[in-house]
Amino acid sequence: MFDYAQAAVEGALAAGATYADARAMIVRRQGLSCLNQNLDSLDYDENAGVGVRALIGSSWGFYATPEPTEAAARAAGAQASAIANASALAAGDPLQLLDVPVVADHYETPYEEAPFDVVLSEKADLLIAATGIMQEVPGVALAEARMRFWDTEKYFVSSQGHRISQHLVESGGEMAATAIGESETQRRSYPQSFGQFETGGFEVIRRFDLAGNAGRVAEEAVALLTAPECPTGTLDLILESSQLALQIHESVGHATELDRILGWEAAFAGTSWLDLAQLGTLQFGSPRMNITADATLPGSLATFGYDDEGTPAQRVDIVKEGIWVGVLSGRDSAAIAGLAPGGMVRGDGYNRLPMVRMTNVGLLPGESSLDEMVSETKDGVYMATNRSWSIDDRRLNFQFGCEAGWEVKNGQLGRMVRNPTYTGISPEFWGSLDLLGGREETSYWGVPNCGKGQPMQSGHTGHPAAPARFRDVRVGVK
Amino acid sequence: MQVQETADRIIDLVGDRAEAQVSVDGTQHDLTRFANSFIHQNVGERGLNVALKLAVNDRVAFATSTRSDEVGLASLVEETIHAARLRPTDKDWPGLAEPAAPVEPARFEAQTASATPDRRAAEVAAFIAAGNGLLAAGYFDTQGGPTAFANSAGQRLAASTSRATFDGIHQTGTSAGAAHQTSADINDVDGSGLGTIAATKAKDSAITRHLEPGEYEVILSPECVATIMFFLGAYGWNAKSHLEGQSFTVLGEQQFDPAVTIEDDYADPLAVGLSFDADGTPKRKVTIVEAGVSKSLAHDLRTARRAGGESTGHAIPGGDAFGALPTNLHFRPGDRSVVDLIGSVERGLFITTFNYCRILDPRTQVVTGLTRNGTFLVEGGEIGGAVSNLRFTQSFIEALSPGRVLGIGDDARMADSEVGPGIASAPSVHLAAWNFTGGAQG
């Protein structure tokens, strides 16, 4: 496979590229989906080929082919250079690439149980059993359970001499119960909505204990139908850790992507409210806020050996004691900003141009606990598990809906409330963070569906988070 | 190997061991992307994508692959059969589509499918130039080629499609304006004209004032209306959602204003896309809402079997768990100009683009999102200046309910910039009320 990728690079250089790199990839994906004890979807995908990017002047040219021959790879390289050349009709300043160590290396995701080796019947039985337990609860209309696995082989070659192979294994899934009322639906899911995903094998699924949580999930979904509405007003807000993970993803992760800050995503995903001139001085949040982007965390979804530019996985401080200190970057964007490359450029398969992507962007643990947060809250709401998310194109104004909420009155967790929502402005919201859970309550949440780029790419990102309390937040948005 | 031969070869490889259906997509795809007024990412890809679904005694497996050589196809078939044999039976497996006469193919323009990077770059340069120094960003996307379908019941279908989409903004530093165009024919795309539209909106919204949140009368652009239709379609007109009780749709009931008629029609002159679905069912025109009355849903074979009806040709690849999706939606236009619509507003807002819409509950269709790329206050029948972007929390079904649609424009066009190109055409629409719940700046 290295020779296949090398041919693509040589093809690009021969056609005029000043720099070229190529990824030959084989990605296998398996998905199972179960509804009300019926396995309604079993799908398998094998995606293989080579994608080559060629730099000429201010533009990347990129071309991909699934044809598994060196001749096809070489032709793809030539085509990538031809595409880059066409960009001269609307050219900018020449793009520079920062150097990273040129290495020959191999990285392998640690895992215990190869997910594709586990027999299908065992996987199906797990899902069918979980949905069966949920269906036993009166009032549950839809009991769903899913799991997905990826096995990725990646061979990276650059015109500077990189030769890096990686074998990444990712696993995850979820279950959800839906109760349907006269005019609305209510849903509870586990471990989180849209699934929890990690690097690792089938042991990830076993750890979930779907059957052990199915009854509770189902009972909560039904109870939500008759629960009172979430209170409306400005209250203290305690977030469960998977919801806080998505909050970090949307309002910190995307906001600190350097390609957004530089305007490269302006038309679609948007830009950022952050200005590079304020890096190192801007108060992003409260002093309890410490955010890192760490691609080396064992088991987290965005953990790898090298990014798709050959930059080693690393930990980068993004927010330190509330001050904005870092960005998510690649070799080209970091060169423009005058920063070190962060190793955060990845592509979704062989046929997509690598771009700045979050790694494991999350909060370093605090010293509090969920119990302490509740006991120290006089009037507030505890919200758990995301149901909807929306944020503006500068990543400043957000509104989230959660699956379930609970009143917090005078230090006690009270009634469950339905349709909980909250909204805010990012620096004000993060500035109101006053209690943060500790290491023992921190989870590495994984998001496997981060949309960005054109053509659209789906990224895999990780987000360490613990429960946290925010003061005076607008909740119950109507 | 070409698409039809590849599809036939897979059916041969399966033989009588399973019921099988296969789609082979030979579409080529190229996209030129620009930001900060220059092309920064320019991409292309070629190759066949194979999607195989088969059932061994009602044990169903679905697989996709980019490998189309003999070894790759044989491997795909053997592994999919192996997977199907190991799984439980699927009680809702509807069987294969019976052979049916093909319908008229959708529009295909070879020039679009084979557009060169130079052609796309020229239109991008024209868009940038029309901004006269404003900062431009966006993309020009062309794709096209053949797709073939075959199944072991004898159904054979083939068609070629093409689509060109230009979507761009101009930015002033304090504002942005957008323009969007989708057509089966690249010759319809006018980079310079689109650049002028985007630049005008950007300049007109450069100075904004703050507006208090609350309920306002609105004129929604075609882009906003297309976004609304996508949410209604995915969650409400999807027959699977309806069978599960998650849809808002009550067939035969006046759920929308009498001015609203919505159809799904792949053969509409504005439409792009295939004339058959992933099950191999030829698409049929579906009147979803007629004069405000909910009439029909989008079905695939699976939902049609459960509902006791016929598929309408709306299966999507790998969509068994999601259901059927209407992908050629058309909100039928009225006869009023946009100027006339604006002229009838005493005090309200003209919204040019929605951003980041997300649904809170599929049944109530309560959606939150923001305005973007130009939001204008209308006073005394005239646009009176721009306001800052606003956040809304609004039930889409309620917004279009009887008595709430005050006028429909005559300006229908492909306008699906937020939810993906090629899915919907829509006109501007004048609504009695829209619930804004906050400002984007706080």
Describe this structure in words.
The complex is a heterodimer of chains A (478) and B (442). With 478 residues, chain A is an alpha+beta fold. Chain A is built from 10 helices and 23 strands. Chain A has helices at residues 2-14, 70-86, 120-135, 203-208, 210-226, 241-253, 258-261, 331-337, 370-375, 426-431, and strands at 19-35, 38-56, 59-65, 104-108, 140-158, 163-180, 185-190, 196-199, 233-239, 291-294, 315-320, 323-324, 345-346, 355-356, 361-363, 379-391, 397-409, 412-417, 421-425, 433-436, 443-452, 457-465, 468-475. In chain A, strand 11 and strand 12 form a beta hairpin. The mean pLDDT of chain A is 97. With 442 residues, chain B is an alpha+beta fold. Chain B has helices spanning 3-14, 70-86, 110-113, 117-130, 191-204, 222-235, 239-244, 301-307, 338-343, 396-399, and strands at residues 19-25, 28-35, 38-45, 49-56, 59-65, 135-151, 156-171, 176-183, 208-209, 214-220, 262-264, 286-290, 293-294, 329-331, 347-361, 366-379, 382-387, 390-395, 405-408, 413-414, 424-426, 429-439. The mean pLDDT of chain B is 95. The longest helix of chain B has 17 residues, at 70-86. In chain B, helix 1 packs across helix 2 and helix 4 runs parallel beside helix 5. At the A-B interface, strand 2, strand 3, helix 2, helix 3 and strand 5 of A face strand 2, strand 3, strand 5, helix 2 and helix 4 of B.
